[in-house]
């Protein structure tokens, strides 16, 4: 059995790039497999019942996995490309450390307690976030999941099969969810709300957010022989759409990010035929989010008219607003005292499960607020404060 620091030290090097210091733990790749092996080893070394569910999520049970009213904690171990060390793993390592703390307190559990690693939370490989929890909650159907492909055209089920998992049973798991009394996810804060306040906070809401793909269809041609006035260059329409997105979002107090782009044929001396730009947009409420995306769409289409470029828009994923208000959050706030209550613009597995079971989140202070970057960080003392808070919450929920 290992302490927080030892678990952290074991996991830290897995999937870390020597050059950037960022992580490349993508669904079903080798780094992901190593993280999963680490999770299983942590479960078994504690004598917990280890389980893999139909969607490839990992569970470690203290008590009966078939029992009712289970209290579940955990998070994810995968990362965005060149992501940080804390986003996801802090929640999973803290869950094992909090369970160890409960054992050291000789806590008398009256309900099963489980730790979960939800697969593919970042959606870095197949483009949809929270695939493991969406499948389990029935928010993503089996057929839709079977359609997902990575940048090399590899289908999700084939990637699962190659990693040794049976994809034929993926899909909603109502039976499992019906046995869960509450899910509490601890996560590093991805912002600066807690900086001055307190090492640990409780989530009030998750902003609505989504991913849209813009396809800009132009006309391939020679960069050295095609007159400017004869071009139908999608790069122009794309670039103007990126600038419009920033302007529209700023005006609306929303967020819009074009962080991923694909260019065909992607040759220095060739005018592109097609540009695919992925928009991540988020706002404090759904009406604002829908309005901002519509304004960006209009700007793209109008510019496309001018450039002779055909624009197509596809919504790839969408997560409605999650409001954590309610008895579970009140209970956490009561147990933890007057810790700050804060919203987040980041999506989480807790946000997906909130539609099906009582769910709450704890945040641990991140001094710079930076996330989805190798610079992501949390002080050890704040991480241990997070473990203690999670242990208090789990004891309050699982020992009554
Ligand atoms: O995109 C998000 O907000 C989360 O990190 N998956
Ligand atoms: Mn993330
Ligand atoms: Mn995360
Ligand atoms: Mn998450």
Automatic annotation (TrEMBL):
Concerning InterPro entries, the annotation shows: Amidase_Cbmase, Bact_exopeptidase_dim_dom, Peptidase_M20
Q: Which SUPFAM superfamilies match?
A: Bacterial exopeptidase dimerisation domain, Zn-dependent exopeptidases
Where along this sequence does the record place binding of Zn(2+) 2?
Answer: 87, 122, 372
Q: Does the keyword Metal-binding apply?
A: yes
Kindly state what the record says about how the cofactor is bound.
Binds 2 Zn(2+) ions per subunit.
* Positions contributing to allantoate binding: 211, 269, 282
Where along the chain is Zn(2+) 1 bound?
Answer: 76, 87, 187
Q: What domain of life is recorded for the organism? A: Bacteria
| Swiss-Prot/TrEMBL keywords | Hydrolase, Metal-binding, Zinc
One example GO MF annotation: hydrolase activity, acting on carbon-nitrogen (but not peptide) bonds, in linear amidines
> What cofactor(s) does the depicted protein rely on?
Zn(2+)
Q: Which family does it belong to?
A: Belongs to the peptidase M20 family.
Kindly provide the name given to this protein in its UniProt entry. N-carbamoyl-L-amino-acid hydrolase
Specify the species.
Kitasatospora atroaurantiaca
């Amino acid at each position: 059995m290992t302490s927080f620091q030892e678990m952290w030290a074991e996991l830290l090097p897995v999937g870390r790039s020597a050059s950037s210091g960022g992580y490349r733990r993508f669904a079903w790749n080798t780094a992901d497999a190593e993280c999963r092996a680490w999770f299983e080893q942590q479960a078994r070394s504690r004598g917990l019942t280890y389980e893999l569910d139909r969607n490839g999520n990992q569970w470690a049970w203290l008590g009966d996995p078939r029992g009712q009213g289970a209290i579940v904690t955990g998070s994810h171990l995968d990362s965005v490309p060149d992501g940080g060390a804390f986003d996801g793993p802090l929640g999973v390592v803290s869950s094992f450390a909090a369970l160890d703390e409960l054992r050291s307190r000789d806590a008398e559990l009256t309900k099963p307690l489980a730790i979960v690693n939800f697969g593919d939370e970042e959606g870095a490989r197949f483009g949809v976030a929270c695939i493991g929890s969406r499948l389990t909650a029935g928010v993503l159907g089996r057929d839709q999941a079977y359609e997902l492909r990575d940048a090399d055209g590899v289908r999700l089920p084939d990637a699962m099969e190659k990693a040794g998992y049976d994809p034929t049973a993926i899909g909603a798991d109502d039976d499992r969810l019906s046995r869960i009394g509450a899910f509490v996810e601890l996560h590093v804060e991805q912002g600066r709300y807690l900086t001055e306040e307190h090492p640990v906070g409780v989530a009030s809401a998750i902003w609505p957010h989504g991913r849209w793909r813009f396809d800009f269809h132009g006309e391939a041609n020679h960069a050295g022989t095609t007159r400017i006035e004869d071009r139908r260059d999608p790069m122009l329409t794309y670039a103007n759409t990126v600038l419009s997105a920033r302007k529209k979002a700023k005006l609306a107090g929303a967020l819009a990010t074009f962080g991923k782009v694909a260019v065909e044929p992607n040759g220095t001396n060739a005018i592109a035929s097609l540009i695919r730009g992925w928009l991540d947009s988020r706002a404090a409420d759904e009406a604002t989010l829908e309005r901002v995306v519509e304004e960006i769409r209009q700007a793209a289409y109008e510019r496309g008219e001018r450039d002779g470029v055909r624009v197509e828009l596809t919504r790839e994923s969408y997560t409605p607003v999650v409001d954590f208000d309610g008895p579970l959050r009140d209970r956490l706030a009561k147990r933890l005292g007057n810790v700050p209550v804060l919203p987040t613009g980041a999506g989480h597995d807790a946000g997906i499960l909130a539609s099906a079971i009582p769910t709450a989140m704890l945040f641990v202070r991140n001094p710079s607020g930076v996330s989805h970057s190798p610079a992501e960080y949390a002080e050890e003392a704040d991480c241990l404060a997070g473990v203690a808070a999670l242990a208090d919450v789990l004891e309050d929920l699982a020992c009554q």
